Batch of 2 targets.
Target 1
Amino acid sequence: MTTGSVRIWDGETGDLLRTLAGHTGWVSSAAYSPDGGRIVSASYDGTVRIWDGETGALLATLAGPTSGVWSAAYSPDGSRIVSASADADGSVRIWDGETGALLRTLEGHTDGVRSAAYSPDGKRIVSAGDDGSVRIWDGETGALLRTLEGHTDIVRSAAYSPDGTRIVSASDDQSVRIWDGETGALLRTLEGHTDRVLSAAYSPDGKRIVSASADQSVRIWVSTIEELLALAEARIQRPAHLLTDAERRQLGL
């Protein structure tokens, strides 16, 4: 039987501090609670597990889908955990972050869900699935608010910008897409990878996006027109309004 471990490393020295054993399948994700006191992990063994962030002790095992769990993450206040199911029923589950009790099951995806994460204010959840869609849910009631369509293959990750106004998604269609976090409108499609894009995330200031791909590259993208104009001005050494049409096309403006 394949087993999976969670490991805690010293963020400064890189030393291994703890090995958390218990999962009986591959561990697909692990994340700290906002206060650092807990760790949540998701596994192909079909469970989500909560661990003590200091001692590594297993605190709770949350039994979920039979096919596995692809991701699990805490809400910004640490009171909830959201998990993404590999089951074809396409479910997203919300759990109590303290007791591990199942609070809600969100249904709408038509195939496995690769990722699920809270918005910075905890009021929304964004999920990405094998059905090629990105979905926005009410973080409290679990109601489906928006279905974002445009990707033409599996969507492997979706995450909010730090201010919650944007969502970035990564797909097997080789693209990264930026969406309006409120309306769900597609704002921009970032193309350049030559194979599946496995993940994408915003920088802490929201100005950049980093993506990772099966083409063996990591790419950094400018996430806003304002930032792109600033880079253009620095590169060409004159104000953006003086750029020629050819220069604008080259820069994607």
Target 2
Amino acid sequence: MNILSLLHCQEQHCHRRNFFMGFRFVPASDRALILMLLFSSFTLIGQGSENTVHSNTDIEHLDFTVEEATEWTALFNRRSGWFGADGIYAIPLNAKDNEIAKSSTETMFIFSDTMIGDIAADSTLVPGYVMVNNTVAFLNGNEPKEDAISFAWAKDGRGKPKPLFFPETASAEKGDYYWLGDGFLNTGIGNTTYIFAYRMRNLDKNEDWSFKEMGTNLIALPSGSRRH
């Protein structure tokens, strides 16, 4: 199973162009219709598809083992640039979540809080590192090769890292930020990628753990929206 999610952030048709092109916020009036269409798409996929996976639905008696995939851990063990994040999701850009990735598959990863900077030889952080609220990465193929993955984030006018996506809805306030939930690419609605983004706010600027979810936005990334 691919744990994947793709992002886009925008509201009330405010078209922001920092990393992705053409992303847009989905108005509340359209969400019910979109969710209905999404459900219909999933229903059709589950009925009569040759690729349908029939699995054991018994949740009382599970027989499986889990072990670390050290080669994939190593891919994300980095000392410069992007060197750590939480809230990881991944989405195959061919929309085939029910298939094992192939050498031709491109996958987009999204992350929430992300550390960007450098780690010294003694494992201390080099001054100048920052944390931004969301970043992305793209992986070509199905192997954990260093030259197959690229990480990306936005930059401000001075070249300093900043989040790719941030709230601009009518209810958003200065300082609000997005943590990203799961998402998917839907071939039934123009190959648009949808992501659930949690609008967060720190209630006390002196307390890092004072964050609160203020709302959830549905983010849409139209087909063809990519880095530029």
